[in-house]
Amino acid sequence: MGIAAVLGTVLAWAVAAPAGAAPPAITRCSELAADGRVEGIDLGSHLWVDVDCHLTDVVVRGTVYSYEGATLTSERVRVHEGLYLRGDAQLRDTVVGWVSLDPPANLSAESSTVRGSVVGRAGIVSLRYARVSGDYDVTTSDIARLQSTTVAGSTTSRGGRLVVHDSTFLGTLHSIGNGDVLVCRAAVLGDLRVEALTDYARLGVEGRQFCRSEIRGSVILEDNPHSIDLGPLFIDGDLVCTGNTGPRGITGLREVWLFGIAVGQCRP
Fold this sequence. Notes:
31 strands; mainly beta; Polymer-forming cytoskeletal protein; single chain; signal
């Protein structure tokens, strides 16, 4: 994407800014270092990732814009505003205000924090030992992988595979039209909802692994044309199953510890 398009994006900030406030300037990564390796600076502007850009011990007081054809790598970085991503990003020990994804974005974040929400569309999203303080609402074409991650808001995943291990969801966990879904050793304080699968799902079960998961709300399985395997799920609410037509149906019901009632196809 050209500089004119980047300027247009930043000008949108100016429209929303208070009267008299000027938007920060845009700095290209290539202006900071010819080889794209930027270390130990406090940048009082937006950052445009126009080349492969490696940030270490950097503060960015604006927004980071990363586009197709350039990769952003960050370690021990703090972004006061957010990350607008259309390319590839690999974040480690990084704090950003929010993340907005557009194809062909791919995001990998490890030991990092998003103070707001993660939203948009991407090929791959991988969150490891991460925290999202807002919502997660992303459509992937390949996979969304959440490992040892906490999402404080609601979580909605669409599109590709959804693979969850050792993660905590303080709101709902909602899978809509994902490929195969795997939830293993998860804690969900709201509802766990799976609907319109395009492949099978495993909830609380993965081969011989210990995968017990706890759901403080209800588990809702709705309109899935593929099979769903259940393992040890501790469900404080209800188990609601309607419109599921997979060849094996819903298996593993005897493994479920249910403190509410079973409704529909999951009734004993």
